User: What shape does this take?
Amino acid sequence: MNFIVLTIFPEMFDAFWAHGIIRRAIDQEKIVTSTINIRDYASGRHQMTDDRPYGGGSGMVMKPEPLAAGIRAAKRRAPFAKSILLTPQGRKFNQHTAQQLASWEELILVCGRYEGVDGRISHEFIDYEISIGDYVLTGGELAAMVVIEAVTRLIPGILGGEDSAKKDSFSDGLLEHDHYTRPRNFEGEEVPEVLLSGHHQEIEQWRLGSSVMRTLLKRPDLLQKKKLGEQEIEILKKWYREIEKLLNLHHREH
Ligand code: 6GU
Assistant: This one.
């Protein structure tokens, strides 16, 4: 995958490229990364990349010429690339979008700043607009990093465990199960016995139960959307019966 980022703050990406999974993906030549400084394509003594909005109002708008020239330069490096504008007005990014983007060979990520970019850029030079959530950031740089990281970890051969991306939260509509590591007893709380048993089937059962209940408690919206399997329904029924028992006990007492 070839990622080209257009930004007025290319230095923000130096640390991002240099660590963790992104670093490893670059070293293993699974991804190629570069930045284009939009300011390099701005003209005039001050190389301004923004200007006041026509029609008045507060805030600044990114000028079209430097962005257009920057995107054209990126397209010369990556002729088949799709160009993505990071903006709070975009489609909400999720795991499904990450999977779709991972199927492209080349991506140009345009980081908007200020109040937005000139409308003619979004109309003529941008294939998709993506937002990473309903909150406002001053620029698209952090959002671009979010997208790049989410896409990179889906590229085959990047993660330690080959199937860990498949087991991730959201990829099957459930949150991940609880995880434990040593020590067995931490400040009085024990690791669930079944995880020490070595019974792989029972461990898988326990993990599915943990996933389903965690999703019910933390993200019930995900369970509503998901098509539940037989096993998952059984788990919910089991807990439903447990809760009923508890309620009956209390009912008798009061
Ligand atoms: Cl992609 N950009 C900006 N500036 N703010 C955001 C965003 C993107 N996604 C959520 N908020």
User: Anything to note?
Assistant: The pocket of 6-chloroguanine is lined by residues 86-88, 90, 130-133, 135-137, 139-140, 143 (CB under 6 Å).
